[in-house]
Design goal:
Blueprint: H1 2-10, H2 12-30, H3 33-38, H4 40-47, H5 52-57, H6 68-94, H7 97-100, H8 104-108, H9 114-148, H10 154-181, H11 188-209, H12 212-215, H13 225-231, H14 236-259
Helix pairs in contact: 1-9, 2-6, 2-9, 6-9, 6-10, 6-11, 9-10, 10-14
């Protein structure tokens, strides 16, 4: 319990900054919806002049931005990216913080099993993600009610919000595995940004060449707004793959952490 509380306190500032960023991006983008709705014909004509690859890269290839569902799917493509960076950062920091501070020997000499150490840290990250997504969900509802003032399918909005959490779980698993496999990590953000944008670039390539095989390689392709709008649900294959990757990566991280040798700082 002490480790859990310590981790929550230690990363609260980072959680707060990223959560406020998500809320701010949602609010700022939402403020422009009225303009898109009013000048829908003009904007659609303008967007027709852009290449399909360009529109796909910025999240408005197959959605109608003058409709609340299409516009929110456009916003959530950026919210998912921000959330992925936070999740990867936290997953990577989870098991590498003591190594950077040369405190691993101090922590692991305490009368507590390694499994409980990593479990407490893992729970801290999950709590942060759940709280962050709850804040996003309710602040987004308030924004839709008071700023956008449009009726929104509650089920579709819930699925869009849940997509952020599901993609975050994917990157938490990757971050944990990297942290356990490469214990001497000096800086978290370069690895975080490099990994997240690597998967994002794969998604851009997938949108450009429309290769279904590439879609399976990146979580950014699993919950596209246009698919959610047409399906009113997730693709079962992508959902199972997302959760399976998360489960496998976190299990490997737990196993490696218990077997790894630690050196005194």
């Amino acid at each position: 319990m002490n480790i859990l509380v310590l981790e929550l306190r230690r990363s609260f500032r980072s959680w707060l900054y990223f959560t406020l960023s998500l809320v701010a991006v949602f609010g700022v983008f939402s403020a422009f919806f009225t303009s898109f709705k009013t000048d829908a014909a003009l904007i659609n004509d303008l967007l027709q002049n852009f290449p399909q690859e360009f529109k796909a890269a910025f999240g408005f290839a197959d959605v109608n931005l003058s409709k609340i569902e299409g516009y929110l799917s456009f916003i959530f493509s950026y919210l998912i990216l921000i959330g992925a960076v936070f999740a990867m950062k936290q997953g990577l920091s989870l098991l590498s913080e003591e190594g950077r501070r040369h405190m691993s020997d101090f922590l692991l000499t305490k009368p507590i099993r390694r499994r409980k150490v990593v479990a407490a840290k893992f729970m801290a990250v999950l709590i942060q993600l759940l709280m962050q997504n709850l804040v996003l969900f309710f602040s987004g509802q308030a924004t839709i009610l008071w700023l956008i003032r449009e009726d929104m399918d509650g089920r579709l909005y819930f699925l869009m919000c849940l997509s952020v959490l599901l993609v975050q779980l994917f990157f938490v698993g990757i971050g944990m595995l990297i942290a356990t496999a490469a214990p001497k990590i000096k800086s978290v953000m370069p690895i975080t940004l490099g990994t997240v944008f690597f998967f994002f670039i794969i998604e851009l390539l997938n949108e450009s060449i429309q290769d279904q095989k590439l879609a399976y390689l990146t979580p950014f392709a699993y919950y596209q707004g246009s698919d959610l709008i047409s399906r009113r649900g997730y693709d079962p294959g992508f959902l199972v793959l997302n959760l399976a990757v998360f489960a496998v990566l976190t299990s490997l991280s737990f196993w490696i952490y218990q077997k790894r040798d630690f050196y005194a700082g």
